[in-house]
């Protein structure tokens, strides 16, 4: 028994970057997207979550491996291996996508707080101050532990789904039987699912965290376990959000305009505890991502410009890093407090944008991870590489398809 514990303990100790990165994808925008999928199409998108979860695992693993083998973050590698124009394009798209999601996290905090009767004008500034203090006043180890505690809030969605009393036979059937639809709304939600589940910032965060944690190629098998375990956990949570809203809102034809709407709408059918659980999960998820996202973005921009960076560094050692993080948190919180901001459009729209921009990052990761001079014996193996390229191509085709269907709609041509 003691020998078995010694074998398992290193894997448990490695839990951190992969679990946090994947869990952060189930943030306010993700919850709104999953809830919208369940309310609009019932269990009809669960099959997509199985495939998307596989996609996430592959992409996250490549990013973590890049960090462990090279000891460098994504921006450093992009700057050193691509032309100036390509580097500028990649970093600009990442910054635009990431900043939109930063705003959405504080929107999620505001929505969760209002579920519990707390004004957003109180909750958002307090949350922003707490996130800022945690990152700028703590070490990486302390930040990681607090973030890991916040992931416990995701179990609330499993409880909410169970209280919703779904037809588990139908759930299983539609999970294993793909039934895609060729229509704008369905395709838009499908790309939003991909955009929120394989968000570019997740790859940036996991790679930077692996570097800051000092993971070596010899230690990487433990980190790979962390990545795949975190991906599986995040996929299960996302599926339970779809199940909860599909069981309660889809039969009644209730449209979800915010993640908070989903929580409120659960109450008449699933009881007040489901609503409270959903709200608790939304708050924990938004707080987690409100820390991870500005941090990932700050890593990217600091790496790209060659400045010192790291949570464990002091203000004097990494003043640009700390200042940029502070600015992103403050500006994101301020925008989220704008009266009349169309919350649902912000939340889901940001992830449609993420899905459209994602292929740019995926092809960059593939070019880097298959660079033998950079990765040595740690490049992708043939079968794994074929799967990774297939993921990048599928995401690109879906993005182009959405653009094409949208343009045809402008001319009055409908495909369903």
Automatic annotation (TrEMBL):
Please give the GO cellular component terms listed in this UniProt entry.
plasma membrane
Q: Where in the cell is it found?
A: Membrane
A Pfam family matched by this chain, by name? Nramp
What are its GO biological-process terms? iron ion transmembrane transport
Recorded GO terms, molecular function? cadmium ion transmembrane transporter activity; manganese ion transmembrane transporter activity
Sorted keywords for this record are: Membrane, Transmembrane, Transmembrane helix, Transport
Q: Tell me what topology the record assigns in the membrane.
A: Multi-pass membrane protein
Where are the bilayer-spanning segments?
40-59, 89-112, 118-135, 147-164, 184-206, 227-250, 276-297, 318-338, 344-369, 389-413
Q: What is its main location?
A: membrane
Q: What is this protein called?
A: Mn transporter
Q: Which organism is it from?
A: Kouleothrix aurantiaca
> Upper taxonomic classification of the species?
Bacteria, Bacillati, Chloroflexota, Chloroflexia, Chloroflexales
